[in-house]
Write a structure and sequence with these properties.
It is built from six helices and 68 strands. The protein is mostly beta strands.
């Protein structure tokens, strides 16, 4: 039993971010209505089953067996080429069997990402199965009772059998790469039958980069409603790997559609942004009259370095583009439209190739606003929100047209609370808008308002009181013809809260897992709640993204250590929202925080079908009152919860995943301030380890000033624990500091074991909320609302299939050495090559079955990844064709390199190298330690290339299984030969 070495996330470290699919609740794409059960005579099926053995594609959709027992003996499937997702979701593979034992044939396929494998009996109950991948057991279905003398058949809809407790069924996630599946029947009371397989590629489950981009929309800047009264601070952080700049284009009040549109108001540009650093745009850099803005990321390299030839003299690309924008797009809506189209599509604008000028990486942006209070003259209120990018600007609905968005929490003169919705056109054309308001607990009626026109870049503000109220509390649904950025202000009693609207879900089925697009998941996390014993009300507003079914939602409120304070359960209307409150109790001393978790759960009604749990999004509101009667508010914060795909997928299937496939290990904090004496702002950060499995996560907080890395701080969090950091208590950070931070997981120990006690995977999942206070410290009450907050911005390092970075973050400093952390620093850089020999050889190979694992230990070289790996085999065994040989590392488990080669020849003395010329088995017996590629049935010659780009540190294992019996042998020695990048 061994545990993986955890990896630092830095520029030397490469991870292929393959998302782990949440399989425990993955359901099929079958009809929502069950087919009538068909009773059959078991005796008549007995002969039928015996004569029908083997595996083949299910092309008909019905039970593919005939009276003459015609079935193929080999089933192959290249998921990337031969099958589309509709076929795979339709139980496209079938196997027939004639009793317990192996089923003839195999299912061979490869896929660039993880896939979910579902298997179900559907033809007479009582059968159960074992699924093996290259000889290794990956799934066993449970044993169930049989229905003799009659049997039930779902021959037209195996998905209904998969949902039924009568039939044995199971699910497992298979990692990316090549697979060869074989099947063993464990039980077969009728001594024959048929069962089905489906393979689902559902896309990434943990994919925080969906919200990132180089073009960030800022729907509201200096305005509060229709009044230009706010002071705005835009915090722009570079989370890419290269130096960048950013151009801010702002707009004033909305007007007409082009060509009469006023166009952009002004263009401002940042200086150089080194990786991790933040540039602050405030004061005169956010022009008076700026209602909305868009930030465009630009390269900070020379024009010549970017391959742009537009002027005889060289220049900085970003600076040149900024100059061109200033003279071309200010006051010219049509030139702006041409620029944005070129930026979006990588075209030319004014002779500049924008595909080169926009650079790489992404921006993380916070917008902090200070505005006058709504009641008391001279009192200020504050709020902040994340800039909007990526698919948070909406996804086009190919069936019904347009884009849709949700505003989960809207007030109109409800207990003094009011909401203002700001909608910014992020598209290329003028748009119309429809806004549907749904009252809390009213599942039937919605009120509709519309906005006639909205030009590109401009923001329209809508006071909810203009459409609904008084005494309205609920949600809103927006439809538009262009992409939109949506931000919402909630004002009450000299307080201000701001959060971001969420894109609507696109789903043409009743299955939330088959949504074409969704901004939510069935679970969401709130990394920060304040203690109810200190005068705070925490409200979680949950939005049901389904338009057709109600959601049953449970909210867990947790204390700082992860223990449950209370739970609440309620219904949420289709396309509606509901509030879950942890109410104020008293005002006791101490600084306490906590967290919350929200779950959408399945539900049933007697006589009705099982209703799958709809996807949800949610918003947290944290309001402090000066008294338990809630008559006077002093502070208020709102932020969007983190859905599973932005923080941690807790419903992970067994056998695969873990690490950064399971959750987020990098979080951008664009604003880190200790500047009460000057700007009047100071920061606090709540960091939550949301993993529920016992263990801990070591993390590092990298701190940057505006010129680069300044220092780092080490931190340890147990499972479900929240750490609240008040920068005012960190004496080593100087007063007057303005900077940023990156939170990086460094080492984690949340182990998951199989039912047999084998180590399977290791989990990580971090979330954060960033708080800024104006004029006072934590627990100090100053006039007005000094608190503003939004979520830390999670992101992930990703690479394409060739190992080139799609998105990465480059750490610009020494690797950390933290007290109580493993010392993972490399000594003098990466070695060229390393060879590790067997630790426990010789190891006996039994006459039949699996030999004990032969281990080899590779020293950790943090930041060093594999460029190439070869395996040296020194094995004595008669009848080589009996043997299946797998290699595993801490990063990758069960890579088959040899499978039943060379017939009756004896012994293997070879170097298995994916770059060699001939496969093992082409020369028999393998001898003389010649270089050969992996080989055998279902083994790809490049199988060892799966280790490329991974961290080799830790314990490797060689696992040999004698699949036939009758001959024994010995692993004399074996070696892992690693070439580093």
């Amino acid at each position: 039993m061994h545990c993986p070495i955890r990896l630092p996330l830095n520029r030397l470290f490469r991870l292929v971010a393959v998302a782990v699919v949440a399989t425990a609740f993955v359901l099929t794409s079958s009809s929502a209505y069950a087919q009538d059960e068909k009773p059959r005579d078991g005796r008549a099926l007995n002969h039928f089953g015996k004569s029908s053995r083997g595996i083949r594609p299910n092309d008909s959709g019905a039970l593919p067996m005939s009276a003459d027992g015609a079935l193929g003996t080999q089933g192959t499937a290249d998921l990337a080429a031969q099958y589309d997702i509709d076929q795979l979701a339709g139980w496209g593979i079938v196997f027939g069997f004639g009793g317990p034992g192996p089923v003839p044939g195999s299912i061979d396929f490869s896929h660039p990402t993880n896939v979910t494998l579902n298997v179900t009996d559907a033809f007479c109950t009582g059968d159960s199965f074992r699924i093996l991948d290259r000889g290794r057991v990956v799934l066993e279905t449970p044993r169930v009772g049989n229905d003799a003398p009659n049997c039930t058949v779902y021959e037209d809809d195996p998905g209904q059998a998969f949902l039924s407790a009568q039939f044995s069924h199971g699910t497992v996630v298979l990692p990316s790469g090549s697979h060869s599946l074989t099947i063993e029947v464990l039980d077969s009371p009728y001594e024959g039958g048929a069962a089905f397989l489906e393979v689902l590629h559902l896309g990434p489950a943990v994919d925080p980069n969906r919200q990132l981009g180089g073009q960030v929309h800022l729907p509201i800047l200096n305005f509060l409603g229709q009044d230009d009264v706010c002071e705005t601070w835009i915090e722009v952080q570079n989370v890419g790997c290269e130096n960048q700049m950013a151009a801010l284009v702002t707009w004033g009040e909305p007007g007409f559609c082009p060509p009469q549109a006023a166009g952009p108001l002004k263009v401002e540009c940042t200086g150089m942004l080194k990786p991790g650093t933040t540039w602050n745009l405030y004061g005169a850099q956010v022009p008076t009259g700026s209602k909305s803005g868009i930030l465009f990321k630009l390269s900070a390299r020379q024009l010549s370095e970017d391959g742009i030839d537009v002027i005889p003299e060289d220049d900085v690309t970003g600076s040149y583009v900024c100059e061109v924008l200033f003279f071309n797009v200010v006051g010219d809506a049509d030139d702006y439209r041409r620029f944005k189209k070129a930026y979006d599509e990588g075209l030319f604008f004014d002779g500049i190739d924008m595909s080169l000028a926009r650079g790489s990486g992404a921006l993380a942006v916070d917008v902090h606003r200070t505005c006058p209070g709504s009641a008391t003259p001279g009192v200020d209120v504050t709020s902040k929100y994340n800039g909007i990018a990526g698919d948070h600007l909406g996804v086009f609905d190919e069936v019904y047209g347009g884009y849709s968005f949700y505003v989960p929490l809207v007030y109109a003169s409800k207990a003094g609370m009011n909401s203002i919705i700001y909608i910014q056109n992020g598209g290329l054309m003028c748009s119309s808008l429809e806004i549907w308001f749904k009252q809390l607990d009213d599942c039937l009626r919605a009120s509709i308002c519309d906005i006639a026109t909205l030009a590109p870049g401009e923001t329209y503000q809508l006071d909810a009181n203009d459409c609904v109220g008084p005494d309205f509390q609920g949600s809103a649904w927006i439809r538009s013809t262009q992409k939109m950025g949506v931000v919402v202000d909630i004002t009450v009693q000299d307080t201000l809260m701001t959060y971001v609207g969420e894109p609507g879900e696109i789903n043409y089925t009743f299955d939330p897992n088959l949504a074409t697009y969704t901004a939510g998941n069935q679970v969401a996390f709130a990394p920060l709640t304040y203690s109810e014993y200190q005068g705070w009300d925490t409200g979680i507003q949950v939005q049901n993204l389904s338009a057709v079914v109600a959601a049953k939602v449970k909210v867990y409120f947790l204390d700082r250590g992860g223990d449950i304070i209370t739970t609440l359960v309620d219904w949420v209307c289709p396309r509606g929202s509901q509030t879950f409150f942890l109410p104020v109790v008293a005002d006791l001393p101490g600084n306490w925080v906590g967290s919350a978790r929200v779950e959408s759960q399945e539900w049933i009604t007697p006589g009705g079908p099982n209703v799958l749990s709809p996807n949800i999004v949610a918003v947290a509101t944290l309001i402090k009152y000066s008294d338990t009667a809630r008559t006077s508010m002093t502070q208020a914060i709102a932020y969007n919860l983190l859905p599973e795909h932005k923080i941690y997928d807790w419903q992970i299937a067994s056998g695969t995943g873990g690490g950064l496939d399971s959750g987020v290990g990098l979080i951008a904090i664009p604003s880190l301030l200790k500047d009460l004496s000057r700007s009047g702002l100071t920061s606090e950060i709540a960091i939550a380890n949301v993993v529920p499995k016992p263990g801990f996560t070591d993390l590092v907080i990298y701190i940057y000033d505006q010129n680069g890395l300044l220092d780092y701080i080490c931190q340890k969090l147990n499972e479900k624990q929240v750490e609240y950091i008040d920068l005012q208590t960190w004496g080593y950070v100087n007063n007057g500091f303005k900077g940023s931070a990156i939170i990086s997981a460094w080492f984690w120990e949340h182990d998951v074991f199989s039912g047999r006690g084998q180590f399977e995977r290791n989990l990580v999942g971090l979330g954060a909320v960033s708080i800024e206070r104006r004029g006072g410290k934590f627990t100090e009450d100053v006039p007005g609302d000094e608190a503003a907050g939004d979520r830390g911005i999670p992101f992930a390092v990703t690479y394409d299939e060739e190992g080139e970075p799609v998105f990465e973050y480059c750490f610009m400093g020494p690797l950390p050495l933290c007290a109580g952390f493993p010392d993972n620093r490399p000594a003098g850089g990466c070695p060229d090559t390393v060879t590790a020999s067997c630790d426990n050889c010789p190891v006996a190979i039994p006459a039949a079955g699996a030999a004990p694992s032969a281990f080899a230990s590779v020293g950790a070289q943090i930041g060093c990844t594999i460029a190439d790996v070869d395996i040296t085999l020194d094995i004595n065994h008669t009848w080589n064709s009996d043997l299946n040989i797998d290699v595993s590392s801490n990063a990758l488990i069960g890579v088959t390199i040899v499978n039943q080669v060379c017939g009756a020849d004896d012994n293997m003395f070879a170097i298995v190298d994916s770059d060699a010329g001939a496969p093992i088995g082409s020369v028999c017996p393998p001898s003389g330690f010649l270089r050969v590629t992996p080989g055998g049935a279902g083994v790809a010659p490049d199988a060892l290339d799966q280790f490329d780009g991974t961290d080799p540190g830790g314990q490797w294992s060689l696992d040999i299984t004698d699949l036939v019996g009758g001959d024994a042998g010995t692993i004399n020695d074996w070696q892992v030969n690693i070439t580093y990048r």
